[in-house]
């Protein structure tokens, strides 16, 4: 998918919401545990109930890997279900990969060619040759961690190195990498005060912004300086939407939470 297609979808749906499919068998409605593939059944119901309100789904692979082969199969079925039924949706494999070049190439194949995700999250710590194999894929997107939503972001990412915080070097340096047009960046919603600076470094890039909802980030604060002239934001909420209820009404309840965020987004888009 191209970023223009993503932008078209944002305009059409008046939404830049990304729903995180972080499925935990201890949190999903108990009646689903009787089914053959509870993770897939849960995802299918959430997707069917919310696909018109969001532009993206982001399964975090940890929640599937934790259940071994069966979990990986549920992930495969989920991405196939989205691609077959809602092909406009931008899909993110939240896997936070990155390794020496030949290994990164295999990670890229796994997520882009085998599973057919539109994008994958990648950690920048190993540098250019660990990220460029992902960037080589046309119309696929590499979402690199820049300034994350967690408290530990202050351990390394904001450390001064060469007179600037490390996350700024990550942004500036990566702009010069081959196929950098395929880069997006993760910036946590809990770091709203950094968006002005970040936008001055990467004015055109899409930013994946997790941390609203359960982690306490605020949508309006993020949009104030985070938006660009093509919106340029994908705001993720996982637990805040998918675990709105653990009863038989879980899908409707998820829809209600997604609708709240989408309505706020529609208002923000109208005002900009
Ligand atoms: O890359 C991510 O998506 C990510 C980066 C980050 O800085 N913070 C962050 O929370 N995430 C992911 O975003 C999701 C947030 O989930 P909720 O806090 O439940 O909305 C999880 O899948 C996290 O792994």
UniProtKB/TrEMBL annotation:
One of its GO terms (molecular function) is orotidine-5'-phosphate decarboxylase activity. It comes from the Bacteria. It catalyses: orotidine 5'-phosphate + H(+) = UMP + CO2. Pathway: Pyrimidine metabolism; UMP biosynthesis via de novo pathway; UMP from orotate: step 2/2. The active site is at 96 (proton donor). The keyword Nucleotidyltransferase does not apply. Residues 16-254 form the Orotidine 5'-phosphate decarboxylase domain. InterPro entries: Aldolase_TIM (IPR013785), OMPdecase_type-2 (IPR011995), OMPdeCOase_dom (IPR001754), RibuloseP-bd_barrel (IPR011060). Keywords: Decarboxylase, Lyase, Pyrimidine biosynthesis. It is an enzyme of class 4 (lyase). Its EC number is 4.1.1.23. GO terms for biological process: 'de novo' pyrimidine nucleobase biosynthetic process; 'de novo' UMP biosynthetic process. SUPFAM superfamilies: Ribulose-phoshate binding barrel. HAMAP family: OMPdecase_type2 (MF_01215). Belongs to the OMP decarboxylase family. Type 2 subfamily. This is Orotidine 5'-phosphate decarboxylase. The lineage of its organism: Bacteria, Pseudomonadati, Bacteroidota, Flavobacteriia, Flavobacteriales.
